[in-house]
Design goal:
Helix content is about 10%, strand content about 35%. It has about 260 residues and is mainly beta. The chain has two domains: about 100 residues, Thrombin, subunit H, CATH 2.40.10.10; about 110 residues, Beta Barrel (Thrombin, subunit H), CATH 2.40.10. InterPro entries: Peptidase_S1, Peptidase_S1_PA, Peptidase_S1_PA_chymotrypsin, Peptidase_S1A, TonB_box_CS, Trypsin_dom, TRYPSIN_HIS.
């Protein structure tokens, strides 16, 4: 049986933009609150990033047969020997195929204080074999400003609630950057860049400390990478790295 290890708080991000840190600002480690159990093969692009000891630490998305897209704050400081990509299962304790890591590429402009450019690539040491349970997802190339979207990942279902073995998903709504900034505090609004995308869910639903790096999808493409938010399911916008802003960098490096 795989051992699941979840950091309830990865850590407070120290603000480079203000003298004091907003205490509500957290990197998402991305638990999905108020979500649903995923169906078999519903999210064949979903990846569980794990340590060498098989502890799940972040999510990711398959984008081709050698590369997984994730968040830089998940992979900065990690070694290839301590990073494994597990594909093809909606359960953490069974199934799936494990791939060792050949290379980790963090965005060169990633800022650990503000989480700007929170994007990374994990190159698998072996080719990912595609089948009904394992498929790549297209990169979102348009600048989305609204509409329904879906976030998926593993993690706790709520505060003081157990960790699900079953992959979770949440249907949510993309909102404009202006709306997102207006809903956040002045300090946190400075961390909402044009290269981020925000979603808003009703109170009791949303992302929380569980799986950073996981996908936000719309119309069959990945448009966001789980980055940060306000714990937990309190009706505040969740923030993602905007994939369309990084398509050039991703395609140039995922080869």
């Amino acid at each position: 049986m795989f051992r699941l290890s979840v950091l309830l708080t990865i850590g407070l991000a120290v603000s480079a933009l203000a003298g004091t840190l907003s205490p509500e600002y957290y990197e998402w480690a991305g638990r999905i609150v108020g979500g649903q159990n995923a169906g078999t093969n519903q999210f064949p692009f979903q990846v569980s990033l794990r340590s060498a000891g098989n502890s799940h630490f972040c999510g990711g998305s398959i984008i081709n047969n050698r590369y997984v897209l994730s968040a830089a704050h998940c992979t900065v400081g990690r070694t290839t020997g301590n990073t494994i990509s597990v594909v093809g299962s909606i359960f953490l304790n069974s199934g799936g195929v494990s791939h060792a890591t050949a290379r980790i590429v963090n965005h060169p402009s990633y800022n650990g204080n503000t989480l700007a450019n929170d994007v990374s690539l994990v190159q698998t040491a072996s080719f990912i074999t595609f089948n009904a349970a394992v498929q790549p997802i297209a990169l979102g190339t348009n600048f989305v400003t609204g509409g329904g979207a879906t976030a998926s990942g593993w993690g706790q279902l709520g505060a003081n609630v157990g960790i699900p073995n079953h992959l979770q998903f949440l249907n949510t709504q993309i909102i404009t950057l202006a709306d997102c900034r207006n809903r956040h505090s002045a300090i946190n609004a400075q961390r909402i860049f044009d290269s981020t995308v925000c979603t808003l869910s009703p109170s009791g639903q949303g992302l929380c400390m569980g799986d950073s790096g996981g996908p936000l999808t719309q119309s069959g493409a990945v448009h966001g990478i789980v980055s940060w938010g306000i714990p937990c399911g309190l009706g505040m916008p969740d923030v993602f790295a905007r994939v369309s802003s990084f398509v050039g960098w991703i395609t140039a490096n995922a080869v």
